[in-house]
């Protein structure tokens, strides 16, 4: 039971990080129609920025805040200087973001080196707690709470606010939204910044959970793509459900079926595509 509880907590914490990553990816694709293959690179870059800021300030949460803001600003720069010039050219956008991934990865290696770095959880979450007589680390529980809180907040913003209605309108039909007077380009830019900011926040706050290395970007981008495919494009609820499923399958698979751990998440994705091509909570193309 101790092993099962520990693995459950760690898996759900990883699922929260996957949600922060994939929700931003889905948001960007839905509004800006950009398949941002540099999403994982921004996640990792923000984690390293947070590591540096934490060392300078001595405060982990200030490091997270600074890394999130830096990630959002870098997202705006990437959109304005690069991707905005490629609207309507999907293949060029994919190649541009793929190239940006290599640039960011090399910048990380040049600034922080290629060695794996570990980050200690902040006090008072740097030690274990007792749950039902069993000992579990406390920081993964913090990540679970953060993931649920961000999910609830995003759902409220998208469903209950004017900004959320505008984002949903641009996602549904960009041309019609522009005809109705919505500032489509500004909404796309701010959504891109928010999506990258979510990934940056996930990278910074998740650094004590996942060891940092420049090669982590490709793994996280792959996970984001799998989560979005399973959950369904444009569905925050689908992204949350899929992130938790992928994390649980990956986490328990690594313990009980280590030989098939990497294959299991792809098998899950293939199964979902076979049963529901639009994803668990996605909509079929052409549906209202």
TrEMBL record:
One Pfam family, short name: BPD_transp_2
Swiss-Prot/TrEMBL keywords: Amino-acid transport, Cell membrane, Membrane, Transmembrane, Transmembrane helix, Transport
Membrane topology: Multi-pass membrane protein
CDD domains tied to this protein: TM_PBP1_LivH_like (cd06582)
Annotated compartments: Cell membrane
InterPro entries from the UniProt entry: ABC_transp_permease, BCAA_transport_permease
One of the record's GO molecular function terms: transmembrane transporter activity
Keyword Methyltransferase included in the entry's annotation: no
GO terms, biological process: amino acid transport
Membrane-spanning parts: 12-30, 37-54, 60-82, 134-158, 179-202, 222-248, 255-275
One CC-aspect GO term: plasma membrane
Family note: Belongs to the binding-protein-dependent transport system permease family. LivHM subfamily.
PANTHER family reported in the protein's UniProt record: ABC TRANSPORTER ATP-BINDING PROTEIN, BRANCHED-CHAIN AMINO ACID TRANSPORT SYSTEM PERMEASE PROTEIN LIVH
Record's protein name: Branched-chain amino acid transport system permease protein
Organism of provenance: Deinococcus reticulitermitis
């Amino acid at each position: 039971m101790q092993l099962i509880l520990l693995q459950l907590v760690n898996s759900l914490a990883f699922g929260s990080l996957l949600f922060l990553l994939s929700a931003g990816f889905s948001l960007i694709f839905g509004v800006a129609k950009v398949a941002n293959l540099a999403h994982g690179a921004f996640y990792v870059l923000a984690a390293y920025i947070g590591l540096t800021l934490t060392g300078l300030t001595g405060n982990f949460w200030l490091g997270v805040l600074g890394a999130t803001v830096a990630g959002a600003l870098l997202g705006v720069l990437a959109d304005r200087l690069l991707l905005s010039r490629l609207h309507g050219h999907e293949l060029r956008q994919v190649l541009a973001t793929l190239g940006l991934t290599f640039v960011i990865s090399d910048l990380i290696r040049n600034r922080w080196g290629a060695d794996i770095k570990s980050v200690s959880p902040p006090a008072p979450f740097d030690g274990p707690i007792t749950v039902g007589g069993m000992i579990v680390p406390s920081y993964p529980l913090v990540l679970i709470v953060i993931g649920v809180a961000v999910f609830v907040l995003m759902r409220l913003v998208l469903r209950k606010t004017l900004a959320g209605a505008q984002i949903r309108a641009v996602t549904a039909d960009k041309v019609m939204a522009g005809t109705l007077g919505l500032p489509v380009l500004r909404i796309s830019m701010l959504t891109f910044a928010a999506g990258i900011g979510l990934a940056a926040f996930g990278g910074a706050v998740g650094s004590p959970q996942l060891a940092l290395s420049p090669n982590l970007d490709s793994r996280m981008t792959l996970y984001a793509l799998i989560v979005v495919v399973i959950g369904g494009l444009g569905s925050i609820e689908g992204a949350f459900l899929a992130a938790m499923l992928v994390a649980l399958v990956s986490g328990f698979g690594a313990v009980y079926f280590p030989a098939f751990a990497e294959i299991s998440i792809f098998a899950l994705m293939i199964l979902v595509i076979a049963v529901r091509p639009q994803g668990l909570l996605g909509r079929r193309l052409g549906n209202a």
